[in-house]
């Protein structure tokens, strides 16, 4: 025990001298989690607060175009402003730049006339199918399409959401006109506004309920997603310090000198693992504390810890041990400190990418979806998400902990074989 204590003190002193390594292990993840959470929180609140700016060039003077603009404003995800006069594509681009708008819409001059003609045609066909005498059915062409200009930086998922919202607004306008034409053909008088609103607004409500294992219905936020993910990233980034430390001890001959001393090399390996495991626990404690107490002051949602604290501690320990094992494995096989740092940094980014930290695993296809199971970060992330997002207990994360322990033991075995082949032990 005395030998282990002395070795741990030695490793702590070496760690404290590595100012750059400490910065990479603590300061960088803290900045990263704040920046990424802030950006993603803005994306989550796009519909409610940060509305997309849009300019509308209405070349039509009829009622249908006015109803369309009113419907677009009611959607809630747009901040609309109108520009007058017929605009060319170049003029629309300039107007978008002047208004700092992400979208531009041109409503054609014959929009209302086309919508009215199409509505009468549909109403006539409906009356004929009912066996009633309606207006003669005429072949009416489709309504001229709306022209939508968008800034190329607009992401595809947001652009598809915009398309869906505009289609809903168009459908509302066309349905309103068809309903009015049908009512007028039957009753020969205008449709009462109260009846029109009642018929058009008679929609089935949609209740969105997050599914959780503990029965709670707390809606997840950007903090719940990002803090666990980037905590894992911070844990594995100890490779920049631990991997370099192992390489330095190899080069300096520390492993060889251990053979001449009345001690065991397992003491040195165990010392490093304990020291850096404590570091990973400190990383998790610091980042979780920021999520709980600092984020509300920055205008971000606060982090809600899982109800099963014991499960959270166990998952954190297992994740930290896996990160330590990976760092030691890289350090054993690297020939120089530069190799350890370079390969370590790149491999961590790759493992994070295929593990679901940067792109959700469910969005992956083919090979990458299967490769995610090989990344230890994937199992770490799934365990944390089960606790933070699904309200799971310890029994619910066992299926994530077991693969993580298997990967950790394999890394320990590879590290041992590497030390044996290099005659370091």
* Count of discrete domains: 2
Nearest-integer average pLDDT: 79
> How many DSSP H or I helices?
16
N-to-C span: 20 Å
The main sheet comes to:
4 strands, mixed
Work out the helicity level.
55-70%
Strand content is: 5-15%
Number of DSSP E strands: 4
The coarse overall form would be elongated
The low-confidence runs, each spanning 5 or more residues with pLDDT under 50, are: none
- For the biggest β-sheet, the strand order reads 2-1-3-4
Helix and strand sequence: HHEHEHEHEHHHHHHHHHHH
Rg for CA atoms: 31 Å
3D architecture notes:
- The chain is mostly helical and 425 residues long.
- It has two domains: 2-43 and 214-421, no CATH class; 49-200, abc type-2 transporter like fold, CATH 3.40.1710.
- It contains 16 helices and four strands.
- It has helices spanning 2-17, 19-44, 63-75, 89-98, 111-129, 156-187, 193-200, 222-236, 239-252, 254-258, 265-294, 309-333, 337-355, 366-371, 376-388, 398-421; strands at residues 52-58, 78-83, 103-107, 147-150.
- The protein has a four-stranded mixed beta sheet with strand order 2-1-3-4, with helices on both faces.
- Helix 3 (63-75) links the parallel strand 1 (52-58) and strand 2 (78-83).
- Helix 3 (63-75) crosses helix 6 (156-187).
- The chain starts with a helix and ends with a helix.
Set out the fold topology.
Layout: H1 2-17, H2 19-44, E1 52-58, H3 63-75, E2 78-83, H4 89-98, E3 103-107, H5 111-129, E4 147-150, H6 156-187, H7 193-200, H8 222-236, H9 239-252, H10 254-258, H11 265-294, H12 309-333, H13 337-355, H14 366-371, H15 376-388, H16 398-421
Parallel strand pairs: 1-2, 1-3
Antiparallel strand pairs: 3-4
Helix pairs in contact: 1-11, 2-8, 2-11, 3-6, 5-6, 8-11, 8-15, 9-12, 9-13, 11-12, 12-13, 12-15, 12-16, 13-15, 15-16
